[in-house]
Amino acid sequence: MNRLKLKITAMFGSIVLGAMGIFAAVTSMVFLSLAAFTWIQQRYDTVGACLFLGAFYFSVTLILFLIGYLRKKKVENESLRASTEARISGGLSVPDLILSLFTRDLETKRVTSIVALAAVVALAILDLKRTRRSKSQAEMK
To answer: For all residues of the chain together, what is the average pLDDT?
Structure first.
């Protein structure tokens, strides 16, 4: 019970320190932006300062969205690779493997998905025939 209390206390302290750090970062960003606005306004004009700071923050936002998108794609690819490896080691049949690889994005890969689906159907038919043939041979013996 004492360990749990220590963990909760440490977690609460981390949350409080993190919130204080975020508040300090936002406050410093506001004052730095105000200083930059004032400096640009004195050199050029108010509209120029607004345009410059707006473009700056817009570009920062775009860069952050791009980083987030790339990170999300990387995680999706890693999870797809891990699930494919797990399916291969777990004994997934060939048609199911082909279907899972080619139909994950049906909207952007229609032609590939249709070809993959046709291949899956053909392989499933062949697998079914092979299974029936092996069952009939086993019954004859």
So the answer is: 77
